[in-house]
Amino acid sequence: MYKARIIGTGSYLPEKILTNSDLEKMVDTNDEWIITRTGIRQRRIAADNQATSDLALEASKKALITAGLKPEEIELLVVATITPDMPFPSTACVLQAKLGAKNAVCFDLNAACTGFIYGLSCVKQYLQMGTYKTALVVAAETLSSVTDWQDRNTCILFGDGAGAAVLRREETQRGLMEIYLNSDGNYQGLLNMPAGGSRIPATENSVKERLHFLKMKGNEVFKIAIQSMIKAANEVVSRNNLKWEDVKFIIPHQANTRIINAVAKRVGVSMERVFLNIHKYGNMSAATTAVGLDEVIREKDIKEGDLLMLVAFGAGFTSGACLIRW
Ligand code: COA
Fold first, then answer.
1. Are residues 98 and 236 in the same domain?
2. Does 166 share its domain with 247?
3. Which of 50, 82, 217, 224 is the most buried (most CB within 10 A)?
4. Predicted local confidence at residue 281, as pLDDT
5. Is 113 an annotated catalytic residue?
């Protein structure tokens, strides 16, 4: 049986750090509120000359080095993002040119914070079917470009970054195992960016009304995020007749430490096996689980055959979980 195996990962975080005390000077907030309500201490912000494809490029180069592959060997390139360089062409095509991945078929995918898991699921099908042998999935976001820096309800939460994974079709027991995905468009109003698409194209008014920024009803999103992540995580465990003890590390989407704690408690996993980097980076949407996977692989004692789980939730709403045998 062919599997899509991750043979290299990489991540990139922009240099600029925005701390909670920096935010105190911008909106009516304070370090203690942000830490206790969210767990975030700082986040990274892209430089003025950095767009999403630039962050994606750095993460991709690192993933290719780890995989020991040249850009020309990539046959499929998927970028998961809600902050593309521009509406079109796709950021994947922009990245293709920068990277020199001239033999790749390229497209973007929008599943918000669940984007990396949706990207992996997509590539898994192509590789297992034999359509392509080698793929690159990149999750990259420049959320600072759609953050309303006057809105304390949202601006404290988000950061920029990128993570990448190179996958190859192999006859092995290792690789992407079960992936569970879910979508529910009925909740689109709770988390979105209203303008800039065909519904509300850019006008003087749309700018004045601040409609080109991310809007969120945080409190309502919070509850559904917990339920959805519990459901997704439990699905992949039970479908494989596994016990929670079998999973070595869980890499959850990092929107709020309280969400992660609640999910871990409900599924009965101790926080020692749950990876956290929210204090350093905040919520980087699709990039969060991709960066998390790269950091777990580099920093934790992950051995061949260990089981890892990615689990996420995001705008759409979307949710999903992915079980990986390393
Ligand atoms: N600093 C200080 N006070 C703030 C604040 C800030 N940055 N942001 C909000 N507040 C205030 C509110 O105005 C409110 O004041 P009020 O009671 O006088 O009206 C109070 O804090 C509580 O606000 P509330 O929205 O109920 O807080 P919360 O505990 O729900 O935390 C979030 C807010 C956004 C951190 C939380 O709801 C959250 O994390 N939601 C989900 C986020 C998420 O998952 N997003 C993306 C999915 S990928």
1. no
2. no
3. 82
4. 98
5. yes
Considering the domain architecture, whether residues 168 and 183 belong to the same structural domain is answered as no
Q: How big is the CA angle at 310 (ends 314 and 12), to the nearest 5 degrees? A: 80
Residues 142, 230 within the same domain: no
Checking if the pLDDT of 82 tops 90, the result is yes
The domain boundary, picked from 109, 144, 173, lies at 173
pTM equals 0.98
Domain residues for 306? 177-325
DSSP state string for 198-241: SSS---HHHHHTTTTS-EE-HHHHHHHHHHHHHHHHHHHHHHTT
The reported pLDDT for the residue numbered 48 is 97
Which among 93, 106, 113, 322 is annotated as catalytic? 113
Catalytic residue among 253, 256, 277, 322: 253
pLDDT of residue 1: 82
Summarised one tens digit per residue, pLDDT across range 198-227 is: 999 999 999 999 999 999 999 999 999 999
Q: How far apart are CA 108 and CA 80, in angstroms?
A: 6
Cα–Cα distance, 197 to 67 (Å, whole number): 37
